[in-house]
Here is the input.
Amino acid sequence: MTSCIPCKVPAWPFLAGSCFLGVFALLPFMAQWRPMKENVLPPPAEELEGWNKLFMKGAETAYLPLALLLASSLLVGQAATAGGAAWSEYLQLFDESRFIHVTSIDFAMLTALLPFWMGNDAQLRNWGPRDTVVPILSCLPVVGPALYLVLRPKTFMTGTPGSTK
Here is the structure.
């Protein structure tokens, strides 16, 4: 999540808080977020240098998004083939366990926010099929965002913003 240019609040406290509080820690940042003035995505290659940009560099390659797509497909497949007993146990836990209840609501809220954030990223990257592909991908929980990361334009060692490999 990139911090917005006009706001003075950095994104890292909200991201750190989201490890413990989920989307509930991200909502204040999302509420005050404003889009950037200039197109800075995909990032230039020099912004991907250094150990602190390792995850961002991985997201701009094909390897991390493909690994996320494979893992998410396996998890969705496992959930789809779990059977009725597992789903009834989940529903029972949803009613009885506050942790399961809150994490399920957190997942639903993050999924509901996906169309906005994926559409914004696609617009900043000037991705042509964003009007048709992003709405479809944002309706696919877990697998949709991973597939979007695979399909979106990337910069890797090109050195110029807006160029893709």
The two ends are 22 Å apart (CA to CA). Residues 123 and 130 are 7 Å apart (CA to CA). The chain is about 60% helix and 0% strand.
